[in-house]
Design brief:
The protein folds into four domains: 2-166, Jelly Rolls (Sandwich), CATH 2.60.120.380; 170-292, Jelly Rolls (Sandwich); 296-436, Jelly Rolls; 496-554, no CATH class. The protein is built from five helices and 33 strands. The chain has helices at residues 2-12, 159-166, 433-436, 441-504, 545-552, and strands at 14-17, 23-28, 34-42, 48-49, 60-69, 73-81, 85-91, 103-107, 117-122, 128-134, 141-149, 153-157, 170-178, 184-185, 195-196, 198-204, 208-216, 220-226, 238-242, 252-257, 263-269, 276-284, 288-292, 296-304, 309-311, 323-332, 336-344, 348-354, 366-370, 380-385, 391-397, 404-412, 416-420. The longest helix is centred in the last third of the chain and has 64 residues, at 441-504. It is elongated and about 185 Å long. It starts with a helix and ends with a helix. The chain crosses the membrane at residues 453-475.
Length: 554
Amino acid sequence: MNIFIFVFIIQIGFVFNLNNETVASVRIKRYGHMTTEYMSRLFSFSPTFVRPNGDTNKLYYYNMISVKVLMTGVYSFTSKSKIDTYGSFHDGAVDLSNPSKSMIAYDDDSGDHEQFQINLNMQSYKKYILLFTTYHPNVTGEFTIVAEGPTSVALTPNYNFIWESTIPTIASTYSGTLSPNSPSFSRSSNNLNNYYYQAIRIRASKDGNYTFFSSSSMDTYGYFYSDSFDPFYSSKNLITSDDESDGYGQFRISVTLKSERKYILVVTTFRQNITGNFLIKVLGPALVNLSSTGPIISRHNDVLSCNSSTFSRSNWNNDTDCYYYQAIRIRASKDGNYTFFSISSMNTYVYLYKNSFDSSHPSQNLIISNDDGDTNQQFQLQTTLQSQYTYILVVTTTNEDNRGNFQIAASGLSWIFFCSIAPTKDRQLCGNCITTYPPDDDNNNNDKSSTKIIITIVVPISSVCVLIVICCCICRCRRKKMINQQLTLMGTNQTIRTRRSSLRDIQITETTTNEIDIPFTIPLARVFEPLEEEPPPPYTSVIPHSRVYDIIHK
């Protein structure tokens, strides 16, 4: 009974679901042949590769199927689909960077209606790989594989094999941002330089096929270049480009890279003036070095005020116009392409001159000008600068008598050096500045400045001189007082010595009454200096003996 049921099931066939997208069925046909069917589909998110005998610059979706037979023999594999199919058999592992290496059979249109049919002598229990793809690139759709042979054929999706052996397992990532400060270029043929972009330098550590995916909330667009990228000539060195092969507005680019070469991936957007974050993921046989080639940003802050110079901007010969401007001398440290854009609340306008600028002849030496090349009524000017030349950037406004702060940002290969040029003295005042700033205000300011400079220099010097004079007077007074003291002391000592010498010659007669009989006098011959004598005491005075003794012996 069990044997009968088993035979009945085999005769009517059976169908089983392998997963949500793949169905296989086996049934017995007449004349002892068995048929196995495998149903699946190619999606927009299916893996891609560069198929053998196809366009090397295009990508092809594929489905990899593991094939095993229980009996050695000849088997036939035919595709059924509405799309133009392409199939190949591989012995063992498939290297997607070189699929032809393991390929043992392939076919395009041997079946009906642009379907492949491959007849292959297969050995039992040996694993083969059927690589199902399409004749045309970037094509998706449903398909069925019909296998016929002396016994049933095991057809299973090769998911484990795909991730472990056939597709690149090494991933590299890079995250970036597009902002209003990012450089921009003309992506399409409309010559509008308002597509923000970021250039990424690519270096592969190993030769092979690599696939670049974008992931972002923006609708991204990718360009792949060899060696270098010039935003003014975006078609130069271009290898390939892609818009949304990965679905949901994301690009997918598959290229063959050489380790000794340098490549540039340019990430931009499908629409103009779009900003946001993005992520680049790279799959390949080895790591890929991704580094930003972002330009160097140089900035300069300045202001248009009543003190700024004025000229006639809208009409070269109309002297009645009054536009404030700021002339800025610029020099590039390296030859290359540079972009200048303004950031201001004013509606800005810019002129670029070579070597010099004459406000009375504004068209002389003029290279280029721009008004609203950027958003929000800001200028954006792109030009090529040479480091050996000096350029003049004249920033003004679209409307007359506008004043305010502004910032200039320069994006390029190297640094830009800015130097503001002083306003002209014969400037014309406009609008409210006429009453706020009288014509001779500059002269008054100059006089005030000169006075401040003179005071700053003279006051310290005068202070030092006064201190020196005071010190000299103090020292002189001290010295004079010391000399007078020395002279007074010398005179006192001489008088004392004279008195002592005179007193030694006085004849003193001691009496019982201790009186002097005759008055004493000092002989003039003993006086060494012409000093006035003191008047002698009166005769009635008597000096006691003890007093004379004390005077002599002091």
